[in-house]
Write a structure and sequence with these properties.
501 residues, Neuraminidase, Jelly Rolls, 3 domains, eight-stranded antiparallel β-sheet, 36 strands, 3% helix, globular
């Protein structure tokens, strides 16, 4: 097929961005000045390429120097994708390949993509429990997050003067080489300024191993010894031991998450050549010994780590309220399921943080008699906002209503709201944050039910604001029932959500 069609174009300043489908290849992303000059192809889609999409459909959505869109083909399962294109560094990344999980959707619906509150929402025409499509939500943690108190965003590392390079670590054009393929090295990088970690954090990074040599035939791929993400509250210029010490062993007041690709069973009791382990000795010098009390958790159920230029994507979440670490590792950056969950983690108690809140985040690596190049390609870190250090017992805010209910959901004509909130004002908002209705009702009292006419609203997802709280419901207008994808998809969203402002 050698025909092309244009999708809806997005206007940013004096530049138009759009997509074509399908042509000699399978479509493209392009830009064009509004005066009809400067046409440029930004990305070409390729059919049956697992790292690419094919047959783009629907509009491009712009947000924070990013373009988001969907394709009908391509991806890991040739079932379509959700993707983003970074306008700053012209990089393309798949955010989701349809077909990876049971009852996943496929086939985008035209105009079925929305960016709202740092999340991506979309509609598909196929898949789901009834095979007729679904509504999905997808988080893009690499874009700017307004919930971050402090953040680090390193899509590449050129001119990264805010990082401390220690021992063997060096900046190489736009990536950092922690150790080179030589014996008995240790290297580290740490952010020069301590960052708040006590409220929780989310960090994502990508790394690779190359040019590996292994002098012990233990069944592991060539290379050693791995890489570690480290939180420490001592000094940004520190690094630890070589070899199995992975560059963090010996650093006091630290917590390390190691991605180990070498089985050092003589001294450290490594379970095998590809594993993730979490270590901390509290305020004392850390250890990488797997039979020491510093070991907090370990798993070998991870992708095989190889020194063959494979790009690995890691993600670590520290959840303050749940007091746990969620650790992800894959070769796609999809982060579907954590490969390791560590419970009962409280950094404020475990480490002596600066001012009770701050520490230096960074990475370490090392080589011994076996070695490899270990490179950090990208890194983002989001320090979560909070109200200071929380107590061990979480207290429910006294203003939270004991009764808060909305029905039916989805709704066609009237919603009924039952609450004991002491307010007479009710507001309805669209998913874009626009107030579409205000009702002055009688004062809510326990077990009182208010009935609100919403038949004038268009099909969509809405939020009802009562005092300090939001309820979500779905408007389902009878005159739009011929759009079966909408009716099926909205019928799937039946749960009630309550959100604090």
């Amino acid at each position: 097929m050698n025909t092309s069609s244009f999708s809806t174009m997005t206007n940013i300043g004096k530049i138009l961005y759009g997509m074509t489908c399908c042509g000699r290849n399978t479509g493209s992303i392009f830009k064009l000045n509004t005066d009809s000059t400067g046409y440029t192809t930004l990305h070409t889609f390729i059919d049956r390429d697992t790292s690419n999409g094919a047959f783009p459909y629907g509009p491009l959505i712009s947000s924070d120097n990013m373009l988001f869109g969907m394709t009908r083909g391509g991806g890991k399962f040739d079932n379509g994708t959700v993707f983003k294109f970074n306008l700053v560094d012209s990089t393309f990344k798949l955010l989701h390949s349809f077909g990876e999980i049971p009852l996943d959707g496929s086939g985008p619906w035209n105009d079925g993509l929305l960016i709202y509150n740092n999340s991506i929402y979309g509609l598909t025409t196929q898949g789901g429990s009834n095979g007729l499509g679904l509504i999905f939500t997808l988080s893009d943690s690499t874009k700017n997050d307004t919930s971050c108190l402090e953040s680090i965003n390193k899509l590449h590392f050129d001119n990264s003067t805010d990082i401390s390079y220690n021992s063997s670590s060096k900046l190489q054009s736009d990536f950092i080489r922690l150790v080179s393929s030589s014996p008995n090295l240790a290297g580290s990088i740490f952010y020069k300024q301590p960052i708040t970690v006590s409220n929780g954090f989310n960090t994502e990074f990508s790394f690779r191993f190359t040019n590996g040599y292994n002098d012990v035939p233990d069944g592991s791929p060539s290379g050693a010894d791995g890489i570690a993400f480290v939180i420490q509250a001592t000094n940004p210029g520190y690094y630890g031991k070589t070899g199995g010490g992975l560059g963090y062993s010996g650093i006091s007041n630290s917590l390390a998450v190691e991605f180990d690709d070498y089985k050092d069973d003589n001294d450290l009791e490594d379970p095998d050549g590809s594993h993730i382990a979490v270590f901390s000795n509290g305020k004392e010098a850390n250890s990488s010994d797997h039979h020491s009390s510093a070991l907090l958790a370990c798993t070998s159920k991870i992708p095989l780590l190889k020194a063959d230029s494979t790009l690995y994507f890691g993600k670590i979440e520290y959840l303050l309220k749940e007091k746990k670490l969620n650790i992800y590792l894959d070769t796609t950056g999809d982060y579907k399921i954590p490969v390791l969950v560590v419970d009962s983690i409280n950094l404020t108690k475990l480490l002596n943080l600066f001012d009770g809140t701050n520490a230096y985040p960074g990475f370490t690596s090392a080589t011994g008699a076996s070695y490899q190049n270990t490179d950090i390609i990208s890194w983002s870190f989001c320090s979560k906002k909070g109200n200071g250090i929380q107590s061990d017992v979480e207290q429910t805010p006294p203003s939270v209503p004991n009764v808060l209910n909305i029905y039916p959901n989805p709704v066609s004509d009237f919603i009924s709201i039952k609450t004991d909130s002491k307010t007479g004002k009710l507001e309805i908002y669209s998913v874009l944050g626009e107030c579409v209705m205000i009702e002055q009702t009688s004062q809510f009292v326990p077990n009182n039910i208010q009935k609100i006419d919403v038949s004038t609203l268009s099909t969509g997802i809405y939020f009802v604001k009562i005092g300090e709280y939001f309820l979500q419901f779905n408007s389902f207008i009878h005159k739009l029932m011929e759009f079966s994808i909408i009716s099926v998809a909205l019928m799937m969203v039946r749960h009630l959500m309550v959100h604090l402002l």
